[in-house]
Amino acid sequence: MTPPAAKDDCLFCRIVKGEVPADVVHAGETTIAFRDINPQAPTHVLVIPSSHYANIAELAQWEPGAVTELFATAAEVAESEGLGDQYRLVFNTGAEAGQAVFHTHMHVLGGRPLNWPPG
Predict the structure, then answer these.
(1) DSSP letter, residue 94
(2) Is this model's pTM higher than 0.85 or not?
(3) Residues forming beta bridges with residue 27, ordered by sequence position
């Protein structure tokens, strides 16, 4: 079995390629972070790997080091956004869990109290 490749119809792959505009807050070699267009908190940034994987489980299987990079990027974003150590990281995996774009992405949420359970 071979790892998935970038998809021409994937919104996030198109953002990585620069074909679709995004409010980018961080761009690294293996990750990119940009503001969510439908924010659920005052700070709501998506952190994605540059490579295409449908969800975090696929990414962990094929590029485990990229998972570490996602978390490192999230910490940098939280710091640069002034969240300090007060933020939530979320992965939605599958449509029933709320995943709408099937390219691995981590939500960085903060800037207000976040209740539990989330909903």
Answers:
(1) S
(2) yes
(3) 32
